[in-house]
């Protein structure tokens, strides 16, 4: 609600949790962003730091603009907000997708075993999977894609403001309108997927077992403002989940009783908290 109607945060009390959320942001700044900003700015100013990180690059660009007398909105507060956005956009989303993957593995043990069989054949046990293995593991890729589709963790994407009057399929959208995209309407569309509510990774595989990339697969949204971290997220999901299934069998904490597949509704939708067991697959002793 707050994401769509930000003015609700001014209501007395904290009915929508906005004040708690803002406090979390401040805590995150104090614990994480501020110490990093100080350290990296100092390193940059002492000339010992190459432009190999976001903060140094930001400080460098800000100084350049100031020295050239250009007007700029770049300042400490802006940098802090950018880091906060990257932190949330980059960690919350990927972690939530991984949680759903683990939950689905508890519900569909035969899928988990099929991923393991593919890993066993193509990678073995003696080394961790790498990005070079990705094209050779279509079934795992299909399960990750099906997780992203079925869980649809960012159902309302990010809301955007229209910068100009637009007419779209006969509808006039005036400048300044807040536009909320409904990714669920694509990811869970019955006409496109046939059985959208079933967890069926095979929908992303062709008859030869090759990976399909339907254009309706849009968990990262699409167009000019498509997720900035799409490639990084895909890499993280693949490396983490491949290594996880290679090493552990995931089981419900109560035998035969996987936790419910219920989402907590928010800007991202993680599953309700659940417990599970990680059983190491290979005894290294
Ligand atoms: C599974 C993981 C992820 C999912 C499902 C996801 C999804 C999305 C979606 C739906 C949007 C909105 C795009 C739009 O408005 O049309 C978005 C934007 C964005 N994402 Fe992600 N994201 C993920 C991971 C990441 C990562 C790892 C990063 C960065 C390290 C990241 C950074 C961003 C940023 C900065 C934007 C705003 C882009 C802009 O305004 O132009 N995301 N993401």
From TrEMBL:
InterPro entries: Cyt_P450 (IPR001128), Cyt_P450_CS (IPR017972), Cyt_P450_E_grp-I (IPR002401), Cyt_P450_sf (IPR036396), Cytochrome_P450_fam2 (IPR050182)
SUPFAM superfamilies membership: Cytochrome P450
Cofactors demanded by this protein: heme
GO terms, molecular function: heme binding; iron ion binding; oxidoreductase activity, acting on paired donors, with incorporation or reduction of molecular oxygen, reduced flavin or flavoprotein as one donor, and incorporation of one atom of oxygen
Chain residues that bind heme: 227
Keywords from the named record: Heme, Iron, Membrane, Metal-binding, Monooxygenase, Oxidoreductase, Transmembrane, Transmembrane helix
Top-rank taxon, per record: Eukaryota
Gene Ontology BP annotations: organic acid metabolic process; xenobiotic metabolic process
One matching Pfam family: p450
GO cellular component terms, A-Z: cytoplasm
Membrane-crossing segments per the record: 82-106
PANTHER family to which the protein is assigned, alphabetical: CYTOCHROME P450 508A4-RELATED, CYTOCHROME P450 FAMILY
Family: Belongs to the cytochrome P450 family.
Protein known as: Cytochrome P450 2U1
Species lineage: Eukaryota, Metazoa, Spiralia, Lophotrochozoa, Mollusca
């Amino acid at each position: 609600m707050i994401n769509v109607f930000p003015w609700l945060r001014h209501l007395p009390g904290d009915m929508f949790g906005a004040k708690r959320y803002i406090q979390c942001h401040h805590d995150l700044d104090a614990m994480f962003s501020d110490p990093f900003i100080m350290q990296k700015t100092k390193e940059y100013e002492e000339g010992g730091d190459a432009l190999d990180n976001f903060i140094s690059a930001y400080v460098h660009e800000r100084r350049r603009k100031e020295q050239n007398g250009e007007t700029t909105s770049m300042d400490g507060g802006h940098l802090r907000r950018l880091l906060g956005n990257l932190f949330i956009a980059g960690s919350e989303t990927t972690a939530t997708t991984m949680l759903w993957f683990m939950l689905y593995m508890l519900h569909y043990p035969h899928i988990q075993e099929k991923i393991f069989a593919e890993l066993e054949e193509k990678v073995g046990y003696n080394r961790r999977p790498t990005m070079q293995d990705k094209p050779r593991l279509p079934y795992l890729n299909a399960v990750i894609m099906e997780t992203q589709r079925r869980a649809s963790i960012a159902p309302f994407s990010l809301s955007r403001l229209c910068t100009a009057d637009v007419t779209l399929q006969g509808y006039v959208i005036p400048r300044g309108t807040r536009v909320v995209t409904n990714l669920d309407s694509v990811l869970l569309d019955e006409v496109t997927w046939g059985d959208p509510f079933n967890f069926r990774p095979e929908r992303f595989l062709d008859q030869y077992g090759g990976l399909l990339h339907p254009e309706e697969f849009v968990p990262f949204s699409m167009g000019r403002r498509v997720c900035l971290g799409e490639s990084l997220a895909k890499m993280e999901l693949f490396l983490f989940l491949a290594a996880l299934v290679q090493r552990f069998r995931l089981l419900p904490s109560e035998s035969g009783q996987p936790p419910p597949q219920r989402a907590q509704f928010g800007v991202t939708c993680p599953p309700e908290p659940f417990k599970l067991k990680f059983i190491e697959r290979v005894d290294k002793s």
